[in-house]
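For the sake of transparency, this paper describes our internal protein records without simplification. Because each token names a local backbone shape, the row as a whole describes the fold. One such record is reproduced below, unchanged from the form in which we store it.
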Amino acid sequence: MKKGKSDRQGRAKEPEQELSEERKSYLSGLKRYRDKGVVIKIDGKEADIGEWNKIFEVRDSSFYMADFVADQDTGRLKEIRFDRVYNK
């Protein structure tokens, strides 16, 4: 049986709760990037925050993978692209 992490009060977290908190943290990070001008794209289109949960979809034959795209002149991050990857 897998043990979850503990919260700030030392109570054990359920694995599903832990995953949800990891997702929230990841999405919060994406929002910080977006707020700094980094474009977030899913399947080739700029995505609204409401669409971002899609990147966590995992199916038998596919999942989403992130590519981090830098500006060639400055080297600064300009886009994060999430594309569905198929594993056969």
Notes: The beta strands are 39-42, 45-46, 62-70, 77-86. The chain has a mean pLDDT of 85. The first strand starts at residue 39 and ends at 42. The first helix runs from residue 15 to 35.
